[in-house]
Amino acid sequence: MSDVKLIKVTVDGQEIEVPLGATALQAAELAGAEIPRFCYHERLSIAGNCRMCLVEVEKAPKPVASCAFPVMDGMKIITDSPTVRNARRGVMEFLLINHPLDCPICDQGGECDLQDQAVAYGHDASRYREHKRSVTDKYFGPLIKPIMTRCIQCTRCVRFSTEVAGTPELGAVSRGEALEITTYVEKALSSELSGNLIDICPVGALTSRPYAYMSRPWELSKVDSIDVLDATGTNIRVDSRGPDVLRILPRVHEEVNEEWMADRGRFSFDALKHRRLDRPWVKRDGKLRPASWPEAFEAIAARLKGLPGDRIGAVAGGLADAESVLALKDLMAGLGSQNLDCREDGAALDGSNRAFYLFNSTIAGIDQADAVLIIGSNPRVEAPVLNARIRKRAMARVPVGVIGPRPDLTYPAQHLGDGPDALRGLMDGAFGEALRKAKRPLILLGRGALRRPDGAAILAAAWKLAQSLNAITGEWNGFNLLHNAGGQVAALDIGFLPGQGGKHLGAMLGGGVDALWLLGADELDPALIGAETFVIYQGHHGDRAAARADVILPGASYLEKDGLYVSTEGRVQRGRRAVFPPGEAREDWRILRAASDYLGGALPYDDHAAIRQRLIEVNPVFAHPDEAPVPAPVPGAPAGDAGALGSEPFAPAITNYYQADIFGRASDVMAECARAHAAQGAPTPAMAAE
């Protein structure tokens, strides 16, 4: 900030200092004045086309649009005067000439900027009696419901699609009164961030199709929580009415998600009503039958009784909360088992040092990167909000290179190769020179590069590359691992990995253990489990893993329990319960605590305070919520031979964005999205540079 030149401006008689280049609107807000606006948005380019933000400037012949008017030293701005009021009333009168009078049926009613500002700044009557125009309804896909008759042509949606999402599908056709915002050719929007159009639309022109006519905002109970369907750690608000979640909205967190949210986390909550497990089940005579909780626990105890610890194993899934993972680890320790694994995709993750498995540069740190190398990852589908951050840097002419399948990343990227061969010869090419010149290079390693036989070698090679670029120091750590689910990092922090003499996932499958406890391990292929293995499935949906189980314990989803999660950058965050789980389903750590009574070793915690204290004992990072890790020199390197790279091309970690997890597979809305996008064909990598 010391390099920013400040100038003095007077706003409504109050003299303040503002950065040179600030607009009159920004200066007024720094002075505490409220300026109405429709087209202006802090994260989008300035359009200056709604004119609602008019203010007076001394010596100016007429009111000026404050959002597009740069201030000068000594300028005097008046934000509230008879002239300003009359100008804003006139603008509002024009905006409402063609706006339909359908507030009683508009989903935006009660939280509509136009509605609020019409009351605050408009006339109490209109002088216009002409017929209002109408616009034919468009189709924007299963998520967005456009009613463009309400559109005031603020172009926020056009600018968001082009500038933030990187999918320039929206634009204006015709002129004057006939102007319309449209997709040109009617189609479903292809962006994984399309739901944010609903949030930024200041009127009811773009609303949520799944939420249409469901409720009014004052009917809803609101709970702050965390989206765990990817590992970004997006801050969310869950709106519910009674037992039903009706919508999920993003909350502002500048260091994590700014104010954006990915579509799968926003819209897949209808899965809470489909294929749910709401009571225990026990397999008898080859068929799963309903049971009581004591019967389920007794069946587990009868099967595990007498089994040596090395014949019992446990796998934690990517959506499990930290408390549940810790309870399962403690339960397995009580049974004498070291057979633990949280890598249900078989990725070669090294848990010996936190820096080996975190997004060490931090998500906000992407804004400082001056070269980006992506290895075996497509962040557009693995973490759409994080991808939007990378796009900002790419648009600032920061070079981006990709090793792996050729994706459409929504920004220019140099494709360097399909597999490890490109990594071997990277530093001999032009992009290698760009990495050498970079002061803060960012290497992003995806799960698609690690869930292979040579995954450990690739992890070691990426770390070695970062070290050779002097990218791992006390000021900057450019080595970054991008996870795909919000529970993965917490499990690694807890140490849910094979202990001394313990078996990893591959060794447990195919008969390596006699009993296998699956905690939300929904991405594990159950066909790999040995036919004689006794399987306990604990989770919330009747997916493929539940179908293989001998005992099913119904748990709660992330929207139905309080729990701690750790994002890909290592930030501990708290998810809160929005609704109660259905039927007899319970919080997962409480199920494990109850099961421990039947297995002969009761776990030493009975409430959230006690288990969270136990979490802090296991790893002190859980005592520091919402803190990103601070870069520090890291001794050693991940286990693996950096020279033992294979030659097979990297495979994508996610092939179907909308159905990439158990929520997406159980959601009718996500299924409709998958069908719509399959019908349109795969997106063309139009913006990917060779």
TrEMBL record:
<dbReference type="Pfam" id="PF09326">
    <property type="entry name" value="NADH_dhqG_C"/>
</dbReference>
<dbReference type="InterPro" id="IPR019574">
    <property type="entry name" value="NADH_UbQ_OxRdtase_Gsu_4Fe4S-bd"/>
</dbReference>
<dbReference type="Pfam" id="PF22117">
    <property type="entry name" value="Fer4_Nqo3"/>
</dbReference>
<keyword id="KW-0004">4Fe-4S</keyword>
<dbReference type="InterPro" id="IPR010228">
    <property type="entry name" value="NADH_UbQ_OxRdtase_Gsu"/>
</dbReference>
<keyword id="KW-0411">Iron-sulfur</keyword>
<dbReference type="Pfam" id="PF22151">
    <property type="entry name" value="Fer4_NDSU1"/>
</dbReference>
<keyword id="KW-0479">Metal-binding</keyword>
<comment type="similarity">
    <text>Belongs to the complex I 75 kDa subunit family.</text>
</comment>
<keyword id="KW-0560">Oxidoreductase</keyword>
<dbReference type="InterPro" id="IPR006963">
    <property type="entry name" value="Mopterin_OxRdtase_4Fe-4S_dom"/>
</dbReference>
<feature type="domain" description="2Fe-2S ferredoxin-type">
    <location>
        <begin position="5"/>
        <end position="83"/>
    </location>
</feature>
<dbReference type="Pfam" id="PF10588">
    <property type="entry name" value="NADH-G_4Fe-4S_3"/>
</dbReference>
<dbReference type="InterPro" id="IPR001041">
    <property type="entry name" value="2Fe-2S_ferredoxin-type"/>
</dbReference>
<feature type="domain" description="4Fe-4S His(Cys)3-ligated-type">
    <location>
        <begin position="83"/>
        <end position="122"/>
    </location>
</feature>
<dbReference type="Pfam" id="PF13510">
    <property type="entry name" value="Fer2_4"/>
</dbReference>
<dbReference type="InterPro" id="IPR006656">
    <property type="entry name" value="Mopterin_OxRdtase"/>
</dbReference>
<comment type="function">
    <text>NDH-1 shuttles electrons from NADH, via FMN and iron-sulfur (Fe-S) centers, to quinones in the respiratory chain. Couples the redox reaction to proton translocation (for every two electrons transferred, four hydrogen ions are translocated across the cytoplasmic membrane), and thus conserves the redox energy in a proton gradient.</text>
</comment>
<keyword id="KW-0520">NAD</keyword>
<dbReference type="InterPro" id="IPR000283">
    <property type="entry name" value="NADH_UbQ_OxRdtase_75kDa_su_CS"/>
</dbReference>
<dbReference type="InterPro" id="IPR036010">
    <property type="entry name" value="2Fe-2S_ferredoxin-like_sf"/>
</dbReference>
<keyword id="KW-0874">Quinone</keyword>
<dbReference type="InterPro" id="IPR015405">
    <property type="entry name" value="NDUFS1-like_C"/>
</dbReference>
<keyword id="KW-0408">Iron</keyword>
<dbReference type="GO" id="GO:0016491">
    <property type="term" value="F:oxidoreductase activity"/>
</dbReference>
<feature type="domain" description="4Fe-4S Mo/W bis-MGD-type">
    <location>
        <begin position="220"/>
        <end position="276"/>
    </location>
</feature>
<protein>
    <recommendedName>
        <fullName>NADH-quinone oxidoreductase</fullName>
        <ecNumber>7.1.1.-</ecNumber>
    </recommendedName>
</protein>
<dbReference type="Pfam" id="PF00384">
    <property type="entry name" value="Molybdopterin"/>
</dbReference>
<keyword id="KW-0001">2Fe-2S</keyword>
<dbReference type="InterPro" id="IPR054351">
    <property type="entry name" value="NADH_UbQ_OxRdtase_ferredoxin"/>
</dbReference>
<keyword id="KW-1278">Translocase</keyword>
<dbReference type="InterPro" id="IPR050123">
    <property type="entry name" value="Prok_molybdopt-oxidoreductase"/>
</dbReference>
